[in-house]
Design goal:
- The complex is a heterodimer of chains A (428) and B (725).
- By secondary structure, chain A is α/β, with parallel strands linked by helices.
- Chain A has helices spanning 27-50, 70-85, 100-105, 159-167, 198-202, 283-298, 319-322, 327-338, 357-363, 366-378, 381-394, 402-405, 407-423; strands at 4-10, 55-59, 90-93, 114-116, 123-129, 132-140, 178-184, 208-212, 217-220, 228-231, 246-253, 259-264, 268-276, 305-313, 342-349.
- With 725 residues, chain B is α/β, with parallel strands linked by helices.
- Helices cover 68% and strands 9% of the residues of chain B.
- Chain B has a five-stranded antiparallel sheet with strand order 2-1-4-5-6, with helices on one face.
- Chain B is rod-shaped, with a radius of gyration of 88 Å.
- Classes of the chains: A alpha/beta (428), B alpha/beta (725).
- Chains A and B meet through helix 1, helix 2, helix 10, helix 11 and helix 13 of A and helix 4, helix 5, helix 12 and helix 13 of B.
């Protein structure tokens, strides 16, 4: 008889993390959002119980570095106890957001069904089902927020090492048909946080590597033969973490590749929409188009509630209207009032006035001088950055780090802005 | 050339009302007026109509008539003589009435610095670069002048560094808000940490609380037991005391018994007390035998004595019969007397008594009756007594002398017998005495009765002794029983003390009380702790259950993130505007760089003209500062120039700019209010020539109160228009 095993692979719960990248959340949505991660966590626990998994692994970052509220702390430990009552053990490692040191300061003690693998050295546990050894679990967490660059987090986490380490405590460990590894790692995707070459993991003799850290779902080498997997975070919490988020239900069977099932858990999905309004001639047309786009985007998501950042693009005569004070804000309000489950946090106008710059250049008037000057300036982005840095410094302000990377785009916008301003008198 | 100012009509302004000034020509105009003629008023009026009356603020002269609104009109004419236009102003709020286009190509600031010239104004040119830029980029072929766009950009940039509460985009404000939020988050974070610690405390409190309650329960039981024990002890101790008392009493009784016994023993001969019942019986038998013997002897003696007495009596009776004759005669005599008396006396009493009695009855006197009766009674008694006396027998015995002799012998015989019997009796008594003495009854001597009495006594004593022993035994047994009880009570007590945990010698009720008090205090202490614990427990439970649903920390964090986003967005916008300004400035500078040399060349020329070749060059230094060079190539900054030279420099620069920027304020006259007063005559002539050059391009109105200046102007520009105020 071939043995098989099912477990839930989660990571990056980030309990207590605030949603990033929002600017103007309504009070109702703020109340919604502060609950979202905790609700996603509840969904994870519910799934583990309802799917009767053998155990659950959490590959780091249970709590966010910004510290969880007391209620979220309780929720985590209650969740763990719920799993304990259902007879589901939990294996967890610490991540860069909730390193081993932070757990030590915590006043809470882990329930008996929760096993935290160490951070100072590789740790191993044996999972038994009905007293029969079934799966060896090896892994290692973060000791503090950063991982020493000269050390490999996966060192010493192999099936052989696990068997050797557990031999003393569990003499029949060698009978366990499965072995999995747990790591909080940047793999080859984030070179800063404990990077590991995938080949190192593939040669460790583990059936499956349950990894955490990169927040997105990632399978190596591929969906048809997953050996290393990131489950992603359970709830996107950044405007960049768009799309469905959740946990991974893993089934290991002897002589077969691991079977993965994605379990969506997010309460709210994020979308960044770019809406080309070139063909719109009135503001109502723009708002209709935006709502159509929102529905189109939501059709692909796994959950109803969606928070979006909308950029209006294209060349349109409405650009001048859109740039008037409050027009964009009214449009945003209109969109938000239309459907309660969609929330547009920010609406950005990236449209352009139809303008023939070549003609302007040929006219030889002030705009021609201006365009010549901007061309020169834009060809020297380093100088522009230095200029901005100086200007910010002179005013005692901090220049956002993203300025440097976006200076080209900013310059383009600045150029258009000046041209808009210069042409403003023409209609009068 | 187009429009020029032809007439000025002051409807109400300062001291003037309904005054028309003019006409002015399109080129150079000189207005001559003495002091207080209204030159400055005129200059202020033109600016006021075009750009608004000065607001009445502070101590400044705003030329507002006492009882009227400032009002007036400027009349413009076309150089080609075609249709004229006019502008007028009454209230600032109503704006410029009429053909407002005359002021379209100029702003108030430019007018002030460039068109309305006074001696003071000429000492400098504020914001030279800005003014230069403004003048030189006007008419650049765009809807809005680049200078205006630059100002708009500056305004928008200013919003980002503004400290005003209303400015949403102010980076300064956002940063301070962020600081505030960070502070609140830190506080909230501390609170969360504290909550976690309190949760821990709460979890630890529960077993503590249970343990404490158990301890208090134990103490309660212990105290109850102690109190019960104490009661038992108290009772035991009271019992003990009672027992001891009883025992002491018994001992006293024993002692008194013993004393009594000793006393009793002292009264009785020891040996008799010691004899046994058998001995006694033996003795009694012996005494009985002796008694029988004695009785026999006694009887013999009595018999002998009786015999003797009889015989003696018989003898004596014989002797007595001899005297009886004599005795009988005397007796008869006596008897007669007796009879006489015994008859006489009762009769006498009878006679006295009966009548007395009778009399007494008659007079019903009780005393006489009683006396009578008594006397009768006495008579009866006397009669009876005498009768008895009469019948006494008499004796006879004479002849018996023989018998006397016989009887005497018998008497002697009986006497001898009696003596023998007595001797026998004496002997016997001695024997008895000896025997009794031998039996220990010496005290009885020869009395058997006494001996018997002694024996009885001894028996009594023995009985008493037996009783004593019995009583003593009873007492002792009672005492022993009591002592046993006492011992038991003591054991109980010691057992109790041991149970309480006290050593035997320490065990007192006070100690137990103290112990109970200590336990009670301990319990009170524990209860206080428990109360404190319970309070804390309740407090924590409430606090924690309340905190469980709290989202303020998360809300603050979300707020902080939003603020961060807003700040980042604002900073990006700010960066964009900075870049825009940078570009625009560069573009303006680039365009200026074409016209500026022209301006400075013209200014140099004019300055040279005015200073008669002493100062030859006006230029802009690399860092944007104005500087002048003299014929000897000495470079100076304007601050080091004399007042006159300085004014000449700025006049030259203004004229150069006004000539170059010919599309700014095309219809607006340049009004110069006595600007040449600090110039010497030579330089004044130069300045007049320079002004004349300007008048070729623009309408110039020079106000002066000096006739020589008018003369100088006439020389410089013979075609000038003169107006006298």
């Amino acid at each position: 008889m071939t043995e098989s095993l099912t477990f839930l692979h989660t990571a990056d719960l980030h309990l207590g993390a605030p949603f990033r990248g929002l600017a103007k959340v309504s009070p109702a949505w703020a109340a919604r959002l502060v609950q979202a991660i905790a609700e996603a966590f509840d969904r994870v626990i519910d799934t583990a119980v309802s799917r009767k998994v053998d155990f659950m692994v959490i590959s780091g970052d249970v709590f966010d570095a910004s510290r969880a509220s007391y209620g979220d702390y309780l929720r985590f430990f209650e969740g763990m106890r719920t799993l304990g009552k259902a007879g589901i053990p939990v294996y967890l490692i610490t991540g860069n957001h909730d390193p081993y040191t932070s757990w030590q300061q915590s006043a809470f003690s882990l329930p008996e069904n929760v096993h935290m693998l160490p951070a100072d050295k590789p740790g191993f546990e044996l999972f038994r089902r009905n007293g029969k050894p079934l799966c060896v679990i090896g892994g290692r967490g973060y000791y503090n927020q950063s991982w020493p660059i000269d050390e490999c987090i996966a060192d010493g986490i192999t099936r052989d090492a696990a068997l050797a380490a557990l031999q003393q405590r569990e003499p029949d460990v060698a009978q366990a048909p499965f072995a999995i590894g747990m790591l909080h790692t940047g793999l080859n995707l984030d070179p800063v946080k404990a990077p590991v070459n995938p080949s190192v993991l593939l040669s460790a003799g583990m059936d499956y590597w349950a990894c955490g850290h990169i927040h997105m779902r990632y399978i190596h080498p591929g969906e048809d033969g997953p050996r290393i997997a990131f489950s992603g975070c359970i709830q996107g919490r950044d405007i960049k973490e768009t799309g469905p988020r959740g946990a991974q239900l893993v089934t290991l069977s002897e002589g077969a590749v691991p079977q993965l099932e994605f379990i969506p858990t997010a309460s709210v999905v994020w979308q960044r929409l770019r809406v080309d309004v070139s063909d719109c001639t009135t503001l109502p047309e723009i708002s209709d188009l935006i709502i159509r786009e929102l529905f189109r985007a939501n059709g692909k998501a796994h959950c109803e509630e969606m928070i979006s950042r909308i950029a209006l693009t294209g060349t349109t005569a409405l650009h001048e209207v859109l740039s008037r004070p409050d027009v964009l804000e009214d449009l945003r309000k209109h969109v938000n009032d239309s459907y309660a489950s969609f929330f547009c946090d920010t609406m950005v106008d990236e449209t352009q006035e139809p303008r023939d710059k070549r003609a302007l250049r040929e006219e030889g008037l002030f705009p021609a001088v201006f365009l010549r000057v901007t061309e020169t300036q834009r060809s020297l982005p380093e100088e522009q950055v230095a200029f901005l840095q100086q200007e910010f410094l002179d005013r005692g302000l901090q220049m956002p780090s993203s300025c440097a990377g976006k200076v080209g785009k900013l310059s383009e916008q600045a150029e258009n802005l000046v041209l808009d301003m210069l042409s403003q008198g023409e209609e009068r | 050339m187009g429009k020029y100012l032809e007439h000025v009509k002051m409807d109400a302004f300062g001291a003037f009302s309904n005054r028309l000034i003019g006409p002015f020509g399109p080129g150079m105009n000189v207005v001559f007026g003495r002091n207080e003629a209204g030159k400055t008023t005129f200059a202020q009026f033109v600016g006021g109509v075009l750009f608004g009356w000065e607001e009445a603020r502070g101590q400044r002269n705003t030329y507002k008539p006492d009882n009227a609104e400032r009002a007036g009109t400027l009349f413009f004419a076309n150089e080609d003589g075609s249709e004229a236009s006019q502008v007028s102003r009454i209230r600032n709020a109503d704006g410029l009435q009429g053909d407002a286009s005359v002021a379209d190509d100029i702003d108030r600031e430019t007018y002030r610095t460039m068109f309305s010239l006074t001696s003071d104004e000429l000492r400098q040119l504020r914001n030279t670069t800005d003014v230069t830029a403004k003048l030189l980029t006007a008419g650049s072929g765009t809807g809005a002048s680049p200078a205006h766009a630059l100002i708009a950009l500056q305004d928008r940039l200013a919003q980002f560094t503004s400290k005003a509460a209303a400015s949403e985009k102010s980076l300064v404000k956002l940063e301070s808000e962020q600081d505030e939020l960070r502070r609140r988050i830190a506080a909230e974070s501390d609170r969360v940490e504290r909550l976690k610690r309190e949760d821990h405390e709460f979890a630890e409190l529960k077993p503590q609380r249970d343990e404490l309650l158990a301890k208090i329960g134990d103490l309660n039981t212990a105290i109850e037991t102690l109190k019960a024990n104490r009661k038992t002890l108290e009772k035991t101790e009271a019992d003990e005391a009672e027992l001891e008392e009883k025992i002491a009493d018994l001992r006293a009784q024993e002692e008194s018994l013993r004393c009594e016994h000793r006393l009793a023993q002292r009264e009785h001969p020891e040996e008799l007390a010691g004899i046994t019942a058998t001995e006694e019986r033996h003795l009694r038998d012996r005494i009985e035998a002796l008694a029988v013997q004695e009785a026999k002897t006694e009887h013999a003696v009595d018999l002998a004595r009786d015999n003797y007495a009889t015989s003696r009596a018989a003898y004596e009776a014989m002797l007595e019969a001899q005297d009886e004759q004599n005795e009988a005669i005397r007796a008869r005599r006596q008897q007669r007397v007796q009879i006489g008396l015994s008859v006489a006396l009762p009769v006498a009493f009878m006679f006295a008594g009966i009548p007395l009695f009778m009399h007494g009855r008659e007079i019903t006197s009780l005393s006489f009756t009683a006396l009578g009766f008594f006397l009768v009674l006495v008579a009866v008694v006397l009669a009876a007594a005498s009768l008895i006396m009469l019948f006494k027998p008499g004796r006879k015995g004479d002849e018996r002398s023989q018998r006397v002799q016989d009887r005497h012998w018998v008497m002697l015989q009986d006497k001898k017998k009696l003596e023998a019997c007595l001797a026998e009796q004496g002997k016997q008594r001695q024997a008895v005495q000896a025997e009794l003495a031998a039996a220990g009854l010496s005290e009885a001597k020869d009395s058997l009765r006494h001996a018997r009495a002694l024996l009885d006594e001894a028996k009594d004593v023995r009985a008493e002794n037996a009783l004593y022993v019995q009583r003593k035994q009873a007492l002792v047994s009672r005492r022993t029983a009591l002592e046993e009880s006492l011992e038991k009570a003591r054991e109980t007590r010691e057992g109790l003390y041991a149970e309480i945990g006290m050593r035997r010698e320490r065990g007192t009720l006070e100690a137990v009380d103290a112990f109970i008090a200590r336990k009670t205090r301990q319990r009170e202490g524990l209860m206080e702790t428990s109360e404190h614990l319970n309070r804390r427990y309740g407090e924590l439970r409430q606090l924690l259950s309340q905190a469980k649903g709290e989202r303020s920390f998360d809300e603050l964090k979300l707020q902080a993130q939003q603020l961060q986003t807003r700040r980042d967005e604002a900073a990006m916008e700010f960066a964009k505007l900075l870049l825009a300004r940078h570009m625009l400035e560069a573009a303006i500078a680039s365009r200026e760089s074409k016209s500026q040399p022209e301006v400075y060349a013209r200014a140099s020329e004019l300055l040279s003209l005015m200073t008669d070749g002493k100062w030859v060059k006006v230029s802009m230094s690399a860092d944007g500062r104005l500087q002048v060079t003299d014929a000897l190539r000495t470079v100076r900054e304007p601050v080091y120039l004399s007042l006159g030279t300085c004014q000449q420099l700025y006049l030259a620069l203004r004229i150069a700019l006004l000539v170059t920027a010919d599309n700014v304020g095309r219809a607006v006259p340049i009004i110069a209010d006595d600007i040449l007063v600090n110039f010497d005559s030579q330089r004044r002539a130069g300045a007049a020539k320079a002004l004349a050059q300007l008048a070729c391009h623009r309408q110039v109105i020079l106000l002066t109160c000096h006739e020589e200046i008018v003369e100088t102007m006439r020389v410089a520009d013979p075609g000038l228009t003169e107006v006298v105020l």
